[in-house]
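Course assignment 3, question 2. Fill in each field.
Student: A.L.
Task: Predict the tertiary structure for the chain below.
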Amino acid sequence: SPLPHEPVFDAATDLHPDLPDVNPGLFLLEDHFGYSAGQLEHCASKVGVSAPAKLLSRTGVQKFRRIVRQFREHGLVVSEKNPDRDAARGCTYHSRFLYEFMSDSTVLKYFSKVAGIELIPLPIRYSQIQINMLPAYDPDAEEPGFGTHVDATNFACVLDITEDRDMEGGALQHALMTREQFLARSGSRDNVANAYLHMILPEAELRTTQFTEEGSAVFHQGVLVPHQVENVRKVRGTRDTVAFTLHPANPMVRRFDSFSIASTWNSRDIREDIGNLLADLANKRIDALIPAMNLAEDLSGTPDAVRLERLRELRAGLQNARQLKRS
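Answer field:
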């Protein structure tokens, strides 16, 4: 159900007016995280991590904090273990503000420039936005509260809205290793669901990002760059961040969303999302394949209705071919 009386998103007042045209610091997969030129050919982007950039205005930060409070008040926050945190998932089901924020053209244009490819919101709404609220941990703990992991989808942006600006710890840290090295080290091979390092990595193996300004965001290719959160040693309240997930607009780019689909399959609403996603993806792939199948000349200049009918014929042919192959 939607949040009652939530604030209205207004890009003109909620986004920072001086959002840079180019991110001041990009850390590339090859230069900083050990990926080879051959591996890069299969990556959606060469960018691993960006430096933090001021994304929200003071007004925007206040609205985000109000929404986090509303999620708590309406019982939409759950306590989780491994990692230890309070979290709200499926946030765009409940918040029109959050849905309009991550769909905003200025936000998408900025992060598309950072990635070097066109990005869109992840089509699976359940996984579009997640709010993480981390408490202070035992300063002498030998395990991280939010340990090293990789994401289940291509790109994520971590937006800091923590109220306590004197918080100690809580930095975002990226491990200087490839996805394959991380999976081997975690002993999980390619099982991302269980890939988690229950150890605090030494500083020499990490690149640490401090959020010095509220409303700043870091972009990362989280499926390829392992990351963790430094243990929060002291905080008034919790360390609050909003993680929103972006996706390559090009359907032919390698995607990492199968785990996200599999792990969220039990909800009827989510199944409808995924059904729409797969139908849209199939249509886009067929559009991309048409030139390669020498149909571009036949379809160029034709009315939309004719083009649609030809696509339907093509889809029907593909479905028949699959059925024949099964039999």
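Instructor remarks: The longest strand covers residues 239-248. DSSP finds twelve helices and 14 strands in the chain.
Grade: pending
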